[in-house]
Amino acid sequence: MIRFEHVTKRYADGTTAVDDLSFEVAEGELVTLVGPSGCGKTTTMKMVNRLIEPTSGHIHVDGADIATVDPVELRRRIGYVIQQVGLFPHKTVLDNTATVPHLLGWQRKKARARAAELLDLVGLDPSVYGDRYPDQLSGGQRQRVGVARALAADPPVLLMDEPFGAVDPVVRERLQTEFLRLQSQVRKTVLFVTHDIEEAVRLGDRIAVYGNGRIEQFDAPAAVLGAPATPYVADFVGADRGLKRLSVTPIEAGDLEQPPVVHLDDRLSAAAAQLAREDARWAVVLDRADRLHGWISAEAVASGEGAVRDRARRMDAWLPLGASLKQAFSTMLQHDAGWIAVLDGDSADHFLGVLTPAGLHEALRRSIEADARGGERSEAEIETVSGV
Length: 388
Description:
This protein is α/β, with parallel strands linked by helices.
């Protein structure tokens, strides 16, 4: 969808902002451009909609060399979201969102209907927010309007320049979550500029790490964190890149342990016998449909009187298969739990197994080893230390 071919941007004073840049962004892919100030990432993005013209090289968007396309027409076909949002203060939220469709000659009714649809998609009820003005919105709400406006004409490409950088960390995380949800629905081709490696890792399908006008590494987030291509990349992503990698490493079935399982209607005496046979201190408790209910300890079943449901405790520390290891670690800490239950990601309630801290650590190590050797995580061999 976007292709750079040996693109260079050199200014009159001799400064080279981008040096012989070549890379491709696939249709529907979200690529984050990350690096320190002055490294060329914003220049790269602005060359896509010709806000900056390259000195040499070619840029293709959807198969066309953009040098042959009228800049105004090109920009109307590319969504653009910036940190300052740039809403018109004298226009309502609905009219701000309908700006590009109006410029493209859409009928007013159609443009406003599209604007209302997009506002709803970004979580702003048009019946509540449509008639408000930008100064009546919070910073996070204005950013949502900016995203909706960029999507209003259904552009194939979306350019985003530090869009969430002007809001506080809590709002930024919510906006990132909302944008990931939105991208899963609309699947635009996105270039996303940020200086924040954690934001780049969380959002990007791939990351381009910039240094002095060149891309030092262009790869999946897990690969950038697990196997930095150069000392510069390793230094940029930080010594804590192993912790950052938790956010892009999913829980897989092979990471799970299988503890004893009992059911709500089982007799306590039977549960006690099972725990004794397996020399276990606790068991997972399921209902008749094998849905997670909670857990029960060996001490709770020791009396042998009544049913498991009389002594079982609810279990709130659980996640679906495919959730990140960072979510798993956070859930363990939040609930002060020595393990979390993992459920089927499709049915969201069928019990699959448990993830322990040791299992989480091993999953992270296997993921790093798999990337380093180019294989599957389940096939990665790691050394373990025992007897310590």
